[in-house]
């Protein structure tokens, strides 16, 4: 460190010394007294004295860890069910009442775990016995509301709650909420603290909603150039594309990919028509959206059902992508 420590680094070092020295000194004294008699009581005393120091080191590590190191799409409902807490708090939640995958956020799961655990520890140290979780969408963000029934936070502390080294407990480092705010900000989210109506504290963690993934389209055509053009157009529109140049491949594709929601098929093909293929595929996937295509106008295409969704070759990529968008939107409207 040839250039010396920065002001921030010096402040961090001083805070660490001030917080860790008493805990480590107490551990030293307890172990010194146990040299001649390693009784369980003495060992418990030593371990208990070490715990605050370990928690401070964990908090510091979480605070200094680079944010967003492994962000991915995460379903909050699945995340909450699968995680385990080291606290004795009762955690209640209404997250399971939401529609499947409606609470999808884009975050680093491990860092979210660490932040949530820090919030639970804060609540427990404030005398809370119960924590309630709720969630709501706010534009491009999903707000996760964590409310405890503890003794609450004084207004003067609430205004500085997310600052590093600010704590309502002299025995703590004051980095838990600072790490939570750093995590949220790095992921494009926000944090705020509210005072509960009957005491307690409410922390609102707003996280970026994951971009909804568009469904998979199965494109069936015996012309390689058409397959290539359709794939390029749909992938640019955000769709995942599976292609097949014959009926056998198309049937196999539907059985191998359970997320196919749209069929784009040429009408005239050697083995069977696209219309017949659509009928077979709908037996396996009744909700399948069908779009037929041909180099002829629809009135000249044999066996094309009246009112069938159709796009004439050659089509532009924008025309195809917009048509699929419209058909899926129409299906969602019919379902509601």
Keywords:
Heat Shock Protein 90; 336 residues; five-stranded parallel beta sheet; 43% helix; disordered N terminus; 3 domains; five-stranded mixed beta sheet; Rossmann fold; elongated; alpha/beta
Helix and strand arrangement:
Blueprint: H1 7-33, H2 40-64, E1 72-75, H3 76-82, E2 90-93, E3 104-107, H4 109-125, E4 130-138, E5 141-148, H5 155-158, H6 176-186, E6 190-195, E7 201-208, E8 216-220, H7 224-236, E9 240-244, H8 247-256, E10 260-266, H9 274-284, E11 289-294, E12 310-312, H10 317-335
Parallel strand pairs: 2-4, 8-9, 8-10, 10-11, 11-12
Antiparallel strand pairs: 1-3, 4-5, 5-7, 6-7
Helix pairs in contact: 1-2, 2-6, 4-6, 7-10, 8-9
Helix content: 40-55%
Radius of gyration: 29 Å
- In which order are the strands of the major sheet placed? 2-4-5-7-6
Q: What is the third-level CATH name, the topology of the largest domain?
A: Heat Shock Protein 90
Total helical segments: 10
Average pLDDT metric? 81
In CATH terms, what is the architecture of the largest domain? Answer: 2-Layer Sandwich
| Strand segment tally | 12
Report on the structure:
With 336 residues, the protein is α/β, with parallel strands linked by helices. The chain is built from 10 helices and 12 strands. The strands form 3 sheets. The chain has a 5-stranded mixed beta sheet, with helices on one face. A 5-stranded parallel beta sheet has the order 9-8-10-11-12, with helices on both faces. A two-stranded antiparallel sheet has the order 1-3. β10 (260-266), α9 and β11 (289-294) form a beta-alpha-beta unit. The longest helix has 27 residues, at 7-33. It starts with 6 loop residues before the first helix and ends with a helix. The model is unreliable at 1-6 (pLDDT under 50).
């Amino acid at each position: 460190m040839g250039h010396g420590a920065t002001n921030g680094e010096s402040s961090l070092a001083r805070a660490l010394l001030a917080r860790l020295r008493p805990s480590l000194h107490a551990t030293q004294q307890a172990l010194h007294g146990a040299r001649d008699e390693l009784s369980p009581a003495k060992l418990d005393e030593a371990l208990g004295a070490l715990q605050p120091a370990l928690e401070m080191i964990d908090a510091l590590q979480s605070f200094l860890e680079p944010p967003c190191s492994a962000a991915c799409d995460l379903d909050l409902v699945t995340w909450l069910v699968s995680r385990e807490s080291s606290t004795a708090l009762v955690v209640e939640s209404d997250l399971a009442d939401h529609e499947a995958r409606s609470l999808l956020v884009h975050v680093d799961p491990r860092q979210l775990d660490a932040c949530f655990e820090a919030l639970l520890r804060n609540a427990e140290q404030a005398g809370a016995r119960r924590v309630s979780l709720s969630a709501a969408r706010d534009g491009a963000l999903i707000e996760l509301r964590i409310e405890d029934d503890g003794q609450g936070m004084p207004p003067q502390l609430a205004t500085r709650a997310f600052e590093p080294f600010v704590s309502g407990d002299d025995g703590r480092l004051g980095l838990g909420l600072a790490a939570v705010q750093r995590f949220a900000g790095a992921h494009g989210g926000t944090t705020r603290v509210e005072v509960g109506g009957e005491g307690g504290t409410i922390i609102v963690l707003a996280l970026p909603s994951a971009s909804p993934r568009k469904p998979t389209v199965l494109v069936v055509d015996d012309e390689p150039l058409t397959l290539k053009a359709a794939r390029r157009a749909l992938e640019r529109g955000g769709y995942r594309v599976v292609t097949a140049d014959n009926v056998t491949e198309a049937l196999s594709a539907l059985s191998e990919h359970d997320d196919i929601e749209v069929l784009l098929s040429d009408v005239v093909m050697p083995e069977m028509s696209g219309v017949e293929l659509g009928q077979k595929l709908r037996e396996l996937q009744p909700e399948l959206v069908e779009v037929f295509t041909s180099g002829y106008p629809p009135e000249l295409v044999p066996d094309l059902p009246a009112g069938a969704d159709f796009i004439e070759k050659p089509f532009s990529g924008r025309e195809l992508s917009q048509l699929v968008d419209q058909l899926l939107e129409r299906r969602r409207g019919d379902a509601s």
